[in-house]
Amino acid sequence: MTETHEEYDARMLTLLQMIWGEGFLSPGGPQAVREIAGGFDLGGKRILDIGCGLGGLDQVLLTLGAGHVTGIDVSPYIVEGGQERMRRSGLNKKIDIQLVTPGPLPFADASFDIVFGKDAWLHIPDKAAHFAEIFRVLKPGGRIAAGDWMKSPGPYSRDMEYFFEMEGLTYHLVTLAQYGLLLHEAGFVGIRLADITDRYRAEAHEELARMQGELAGMMLAELGPEGNAHFIEDWRSLTVVLDKGELRPAQIWATRPAT
Ligand SMILES: C[S@@+](CC[C@H](N)C(=O)[O-])C[C@H]1O[C@@H](n2cnc3c(N)ncnc32)[C@H](O)[C@@H]1O
Questions:
Q1: Band of the pLDDT at 5, cuts 50, 70, 90?
Q2: What is the pLDDT of residues 89-111, one digit of tens each?
């Protein structure tokens, strides 16, 4: 992979946490983690969080009973921030945040009970290789529990490309049907896919209203007038592709067969 791994700059991290809460770089906060992983018995389980960001979700996984969480991410800046958060909260024995390079996962076969991910795999271009690696590091009977962003069929529209430009991030999106097929081809069974576009569409409009309302003073103070204007326009462009149904957030579950 050739794209930069420091796409999320300090300004972006400030903005995302202002909207979604300290340690959270994707929508939904603790409730999203409960929805995605709460249906499983996490008691004492070893979890791998791929694209863990600052680790806020990993703390929720611990409160849900996880035995140990290994969080991996490709951004040195974000990983430093996540490790510092864990040291400060005294959780660094239970949540181990590691910097990795994109590609094969640096773990032995059958190392984890659950592989978790939240709105991070959208940056990974080779999803077949990614799912093959997840299959390898999961124990037989182990599960994927993830949130991710999908797209509608067909090429990206100009609105979608404009949204990506505003984000300043590299996205590699497929449709939910393609995602399910790729999981199937990697050997997963019990694949469940939930499209949550309608819900996030409403939430994104509320987020934009908060940015222009209750968060406006903080945004101006933290990001300056140019940063404030940029992120308002970024969020407006997000609501456009959600309103069109072109950007389609989803939740995903799948199991590595027990034998
Ligand atoms: C939107 S953030 C979500 C972070 C976290 N999951 C959360 O919800 O707070 C996406 C994260 O994916 C990371 N990322 C991008 N490409 C990755 C890759 N190939 N492997 C692991 N992490 C990656 C980014 O550095 C970033 O921290």
A1: low
A2: 999 999 999 999 999 999 999 99
Among residues 148, 137, 83, the alpha carbon closest in space to that of 111 is found at: 137
- Distance (angstroms) between ligand 1 centre and the Cα of 103 equals 14
In a domain, 18, yes or no: no
Rounded Cα gap, residues 233 and 163, in angstroms: 9
Domain hosting 43: range is 29-197+250-255
Cα-to-centroid distance, 79 and ligand 1 (Å): 10
Pocket of ligand 1 (CB under 6 A): 8, 24-26, 50-53, 56-57, 72-75, 78, 102, 118-120, 123-124
| Residue 104 belongs to some domain of the structure | yes
**What's the CATH code of the domain at 161?**
3.40.50.150
- Report the domain count for the chain: 1
Residue-level pLDDT at 43 = 95
Q: 148 C-alpha vs ligand 1 centroid, how far in Å? A: 11
C-alpha–C-alpha distance, residues 205 and 242, integer Å: 10
- Give a yes or no: residue 60 inside a domain: yes
Token pair listed for 194: 């939930």
The mean predicted confidence, pLDDT, of the chain is 96
Q: What is the identity of the amino acid at 83? A: Q
Q: Does residue 17 sit within a domain?
A: no
Which residue minimizes the CA distance to atom 8 of ligand 1? 26
Instruction: Please give the single-letter amino acid code of residue 45.
Output: K
Per-residue confidence (pLDDT) for residue 2, from 0 to 100:
36
- Which pLDDT score, from 0 to 100, does residue 220 have? 96
Widest Cα–Cα separation across the chain: 57
